[in-house]
Automatic annotation (TrEMBL):
GO terms for molecular function: metal ion binding; molybdopterin molybdotransferase activity. It is an enzyme of class 2 (transferase). Its EC number is 2.10.1.1. Keywords: Magnesium, Metal-binding, Molybdenum, Molybdenum cofactor biosynthesis, Transferase. One of its GO terms (cellular component) is cytosol. Catalyzes the insertion of molybdate into adenylated molybdopterin with the concomitant release of AMP. It comes from the Bacteria. PROSITE patterns: MOCF_BIOSYNTHESIS_2 (PS01079). NCBIfam families: Glp_gephyrin, molyb_syn. Coiled coil: none annotated. One of its GO terms (biological process) is Mo-molybdopterin cofactor biosynthetic process. This is Molybdopterin molybdenumtransferase.
Length: 401
């Protein structure tokens, strides 16, 4: 096992010299899930004027405890005129606070008779008033570069009247499935064949990480075909991902083709699952390079490898710090295990209780048992040569985006 490399060395090799992709402008409607390429500064105060936080009556706090004439009615979206001295105004949620008024009392506390209202006593100045700029002030940083545009961020941009945003181009990924025994669903299985579970799983994970999967290719167990298809994939993609073909079998041609065509940066890691993992680069005709990640063919190894390697690689290409590393938390193990010379990434479900976070490991941790990944919330990281007993504290990597 002396030639096995730790994950830290692999990540360093994978991310070496990676630069964020160029920006492009897209409409706000098309920006969901994209990553901001440039910081956005607020051009407007939010809210743009003092307004009422509820339906009620707006007045001067000094006039509280009196019967006051109702001098105007202020609906949301309608301009307010200055408040007549010694009066109140009927106001609705979002309505503009008129000049001269300084508080709002909710309608349930007011007695109205005709065109006058009895206001309760002791109202504080500013009560139920949403001040101009309370959320955002003009000139403030609205969103930082590298922010992923999910629901709240999109709303924040729309609140500024923004219709176009500068985002990073999505990394283009070619996804190659190797092996004569791997066939697509919908085709009857012959003896010795397996359906391709890696392809839809990895495609979905890559899309969740912000990538655009531009090519899906089946690669036969043939060196010449493997080399040709790797070259074609590199010509259209920023990243080429393969499953299978990186071990030491006679029909595993990917590693050899990669070393022949381009550069093999790393092979064989001291992790479980996922020991046979190839990292490298493939040249293009214009002199640039496509990154290459060769995942093992076992589906759990592919699943774990995607979270550990493809996610931070997409983060680097998108300039998105949130994707650089999985969130880590400490949990109490409700399982026992013992590791050998490799670091083990165990699929666990997390249970949140009054006593803290409990990690429940799936009983069968074999790299072919994909069902364990469906309900997995995290990967419990167990260092080499460790004995873990129930009640021990373990570090878990939370599987988020």
């Amino acid at each position: 096992m002396a030639d096995l490399q730790p994950i830290s060395v692999a990540l360093e090799a994978l991310l070496s010299d990676v630069r964020a992709l160029e920006p492009e402008s897209v409409s706000l409607e098309a920006a969901a899930g994209r990553v901001l390429a440039e910081a956005v500064t607020a051009q407007l105060d939010v809210p743009p004027f003092d307004n009422s936080a509820m339906d009620g009556y707006v007045l001067r706090a000094s006039d509280a405890g009196k019967w006051l004439p109702i001098s105007q009615r202020i609906a949301a979206g309608s301009p307010a005129v200055p408040l007549v001295e010694g009066s109140c105004a009927r106001i609705f949620t979002g309505g503009e606070i008129p000049p001269g008024a300084d508080c709002v009392v909710m309608q349930e506390r007011v007695t109205q008779e005709g065109d006058r209202a009895l206001i309760p006593d002791a109202l504080p100045v500013g009560d139920n008033v949403r001040r101009q700029g309370r959320d955002v002030s003009r000139g403030e940083l609205l969103l930082s570069a590298g922010e992923c545009l999910e629901a709240a961020a999109l709303g924040h941009l729309a609140g500024q009247g923004i219709t176009q945003v500068s985002v990073r181009r999505q990394p283009r990924v070619a996804l190659l499935s190797t092996g004569d025994e791997i066939i697509d669903p919908g085709t009857p299985l012959k003896p010795g064949q397996l359906y391709n579970s890696n392809r839809p799983m990895l495609k979905r994970l890559l899309e969740n990480y912000g990538a655009e999967v531009v090519q899906l290719v089946s690669v036969p167990d043939d060196y010449a075909q493997t080399a040709m298809l790797l070259t074609q994939a590199a010509s259209v993609a920023d990243v080429v991902v393969s499953t299978g073909g990186v071990s030491v079998g006679e029909e595993d041609h990917v590693k050899a083709a990669l070393a022949s065509l381009g550069q093999l940066d790393m092979w064989k890691l001291a992790i479980r699952p996922g020991k046979p993992l190839a990292l490298g680069r493939l040249p293009r005709e214009d002199g640039s390079e496509a990154r290459f990640v060769g995942l093992p063919g076992n589906p759990v190894s592919g699943f774990v490898g995607a979270w550990l390697f493809l996610r931070p690689l997409m983060g680097a290409l998108l300039g998105c710090p949130a994707l650089n590393a999985l969130p880590a938390l400490t949990a109490t193990a409700n399982f026992t295990t013992q590791t050998g010379p490799r670091q083990h990434y165990m699929r666990v479900a997390l249970r949140f209780s009054e006593e803290g976070i409990i990690a429940e490991a799936f009983e069968d941790q074999n790299s072919g048992v994909l069902s364990s990944c469906i309900s997995a919330d995290a990967l419990a990281v167990i260092d080499p040569h460790q004995q873990v007993e129930k009640g021990a504290l373990v570090r878990c990597l939370w599987l988020q985006r």
